[in-house]
Protein 1
Amino acid sequence: MKQRTLTILKPDTVARRNCGAVISRLEQEGFEILAGRMLRLSEEQAMAFYAVHKDKPFYRPLVEFMTSGPVWPMALERDNAIEHLRKVMGATDPAKAAPGTIRQQFATSIERNAIHGSDSPENARIELSFFFSAAELA
Ligand code: CMP
């Protein structure tokens, strides 16, 4: 069944000019790009987006990294989109990411890990609406 998920090309991907390669890979994997827009997150927006991690030791550096340059959020659609995107991204830590995954190919550390993908249908809904209006997703 068709499902939607949110991805974010993180500041390292934009800075290292890997957006084209990552988007091409996502298209090859059968994802349709429904919406997308490059933007710079404010500190407040990054803090709100990662609020679930607010008590973790990596929260502050994560917010700093995610506001360090432009990001490129996109709404993606595909069969089994959430699980498939997470498989294609690979493990959070690129050192543990399987060969051929986006993070194994493009990430440089657990923090500078190239790409975000929603981890559940509920979070996908919340995260899609964080960046895109209902009209943009229609
Ligand atoms: P993501 O899964 O997109 O969202 C939370 C992010 O926190 C995660 O990617 C990592 O980039 C970042 N992060 C930094 N350090 C850690 C850590 N030790 N464990 C998990 N996530 C981390």
Note: The pocket of adenosine-3',5'-cyclic-monophosphate is lined by residues 53, 58, 62, 92, 110-111, 113, 116 (CB under 6 Å).
Protein 2
Amino acid sequence: MLILRKYLETCGCEPDLIALIRVIARQMETIRKAFLENQTFEKTQNPSGELQTQMDVWADEHLIKVIGESGLVRELASEEQADIVRFENSRTEYCVVMDPLDGSSLISTNLAVGTIVGIYDSGGVLQPGSKLRAAFYTLFGPLTVLVVSVGKGVQSFAWDQENEHYLLLRTGITVPEGKQYGTGGLRKEWLPEHIKVIDYFDENGFKIRYSGSFVADCHQLLTYGGIYSYPGSKKNPDGKLRLLFEANPLGFIITQAGGRITDGKRNILDIVPEKQHQTTPIYIGSKGIIEKIEEIFSSSSIF
Ligand code: AFP
């Protein structure tokens, strides 16, 4: 059976990129084991003002240490770090963006959470998602699953504990045109365009799926299609989700799988980030549904 390393080699990835993806991917069992002893909330807040869990902090510190020691990354931006981290002794120019533990409010309920990573060839972390060289995420469900794209479609792998490697699960994954949706935010704070989008779903027989873990909610798009959304609101017109750490890596992967990502008006992957913790409204999923959402947004702006 095909393993992750062999797959990356067949894609023509350079040895350093393969080494970087593998070194991060191999930390997932270590992170998984750490859940048992790190079950509480820290008293600290992350740079977006959210209460950190002990695991957010643990996974962040662990990954930064391993990535720094690898000598494979020049620059790193993490959702849990206020500033960009630079590694002066790196022997490559790769730049990494990451959410060490996405969906962490679900740790205490034992629902699925994961790690999100994006890799740029060089040039710093403040680049549009379309320039990503590779992106992957892992999901801690019944299996530890890794979904990766190096710009040649999307594949998923599962961690084989006994043999200590990732085994191919699905190849050439595509996002079907499904009929399910998930949306975050408070209904009373939704903007008129978003209300119209939700009305459209309700009138057209869509059913609701929303867990509160972006990475898990996006993962199901690869099987069932539909969309995940976290809209801009009256209080936060720029939404909640982070452009660098959440929207771009997942947007890259879903786009590679034939889906799309938008903020309602434009492809999120085209946005040039102005700051590290920038947020964006987000709609991600099946291509046809995203087109419909953009149509609803553009017709709403006429009035
Ligand atoms: P973090 O766990 O990395 O802070 O991310 C949480 C998140 O950005 C995303 O994973 C969820 O879909 C969303 O927030 C959930 O937000 P609500 O709790 O407001 O629904």
Note: The pocket of AFP is lined by residues 50, 79, 99, 102-105, 184, 212-214, 240-241, 246 (CB under 6 Å).
